Structure formats: structure tokens, C-alpha cells
UniProtKB/TrEMBL annotation:
UniProt name for this protein: ABC transporter
GO biological process: zinc ion transport
An example Gene Ontology molecular-function term: ATP hydrolysis activity
SMART domains to which the protein is assigned, alphabetical: AAA
Species whose genome carries this gene: Telmatospirillum siberiense
Coiled-coil ranges per UniProt: none
Amino acid sequence: MNAIRLTDVTLGYDRHPAVHHIDGHFEDGSMTAVIGPNGAGKSTLLKGIMGLLPPLTGAITLDGATCGDIAYLPQQADIDREFPLSVLDVVLLGAWKWTGPFGGATRAMRQQAEEALRAVGLEGFGKRQIAALSAGQRQRMLFARLLLQDCRVILLDEPFTAIDARTTADLLALVNHWHEERRTIIAVLHDFVQVRRNFPQTLLLARETIGWGATAEVLTAENLLAAQNMCEAGDDRAPPCRRSAS
Ligand SMILES: Nc1ncnc2c1ncn2[C@@H]1O[C@H](COP(=O)(O)OP(=O)(O)OP(=O)(O)O)[C@@H](O)[C@H]1O
């Protein structure tokens, strides 16, 4: 079964395409690394799947799911660290599907949030302000929120960038556990060793698809060189795309 199908998808900003004509699918229960040079369109693709950026052309279909069934962890840079919230408040945001945007958290939800904090190694951190967390602790907190969200599809944008080795290992173990639970995982990553060791599938992007399939077949020197060349030749302010669907 396909969890997510992309049919000739082009995504961009102000009608300027950032990533073109992506065609393929993420199978239900698959675990895919999305890799590629800076500016290749990796974050853009995740935003498209999440429904934050409607395709300029083509279609993204979620098999039997809605955007509410997808959990999304944006890049660290996109998160406001100074907002006056406690760690428990942030984790409880993961329960909004059940509470509604203005609903209060029940005692059971608070307990679940405490358990999630324990699972990511942040027991006793609930009352702390998020501004007082280190980068690694903040990422652990956001993984606790993902645990509470309990979604079938999980999108992670550079989840381990600027995170220490111990935290990365702990959070990777959690991601592998989600994979064992047959959730669909799509993660933007830059560490190829990590990708080879943990991610069975890889999508290599360079404004368009260079390779998509088994990691060993996609993550080759030849493909990486092609991706680099493609991105260097790319134009940030490309005109609206006129290529027809193939
Ligand atoms: N909000 C935006 N408005 C306009 N252009 C954008 C916006 N976000 C990204 N872009 C452009 O879209 C292209 C793809 O960016 P994107 O962030 O998806 O790349 P990426 O592969 O995730 O890169 P990185 O590895 O550096 O995070 C880039 O040319 C970028 O400048």
C-alpha cells in the first residue's frame, strides 16, 4: 500500500519552481531518507507533503490519511525558542487532535506527556521553560511531542543537525522503533553514514529526482556528483515551469 503518492509534483514559491516533476510513492511503513545538496528542495518537498505548500502542478495524495495524520518536525531554525512556554506545554501541543486548539489537557494527557518526556530522557523537565533548554534537550522535547501525536506518517526535517552524538543515537533508536511499528518515516538528512546504516530507502533530490529506491542503489558517487552538478546549474529565480507532464 502507498502511504503517499506524488504525481508529477512541482512545488515552489511565488510561482517559481523550487523542485520539479517529482513522481513516485512512499510505501506504507517505509523509512526514507531525503538527501541532496543545499537548496535541492528537500524542505520544500516535506512542506508540500504536509500540505503547507500547495503544488504548483501535479498532485500529492495521502492514502486514506489526512494532513492531521501526519506529524512534522521542522528544521530547528524554524522554531521560536524564546516563546514563553514550558516543556510540558510544548509536548501537550502534540495532543491537539484530541483537545482541539482551545481545549484543556486532561489528567490522562498530562500523564502521557510525562511518559513521553521519560521516554526521551527528559524526566522531570516538564516545568522548565523552553528557552532554558540546550539544543539536544529541545530536540528530545520535540520528539516527545511526536510521541504524543502518535501519527502513522512522520516527517523529520534535519532532525539531528547540530545535535550531539548521544542524543542523536537515542533519537535514532526512537525513529527505528517507529519503523518497527510500521509507521511511514520520511527524514531529510545530510549524514550519509547515518543514512546507509538506518534508512532502507533514499530519495536523492537536486531540484528534481536523481534517484529514488533502495539506499545502496541511490546513494552512489555517480548520483551524488550528478546531484551536485544539477544544483550548481540551477537558477533560484527560475521562471514558471512549462514542462508538461511526462
Ligand atoms: N519561503 C521561501 N520563499 C522563497 N523561496 C524559498 C523559500 N524557502 C525555500 N526557498 C527556495 O527554494 C529552494 C529550495 O529550498 P529548500 O529549503 O527546500 O532546500 P533544501 O534542500 O531543504 O536545502 P538545505 O539543505 O539548505 O536545507 C531554494 O532555492 C530556496 O532558496
